[in-house]
Specification:
Layout lengths: L13 H5 L4 H22 L4 H14 L1
């Protein structure tokens, strides 16, 4: 997980997952981390339109 989150100041460790009881909680926790990482990357870009194009191309390839 930490490899996907280079901007996060607090790294994820096993203790973070031990606090979560249900799979839904783990999914929500990871989703929030990824959304934060995405927002931080977006703030670095001079023009977020570039990121939107990349997202669109990835989505089209996945579909």
């Amino acid at each position: 997980v930490n490899a996907l989150l280079p901007h996060e100041t607090k790294k994820v460790d096993e203790a973070d997952f031990d606090k979560l009881d249900k799979p839904e909680d783990i999914i929500e926790y990871l989703t929030n981390l990824l959304h934060t990482e995405h927002r931080l990357k977006e703030e670095e870009l001079p023009d977020p339109k570039i990121l939107r194009e990349v997202e669109k191309n990835i989505l089209l390839r996945v579909v």
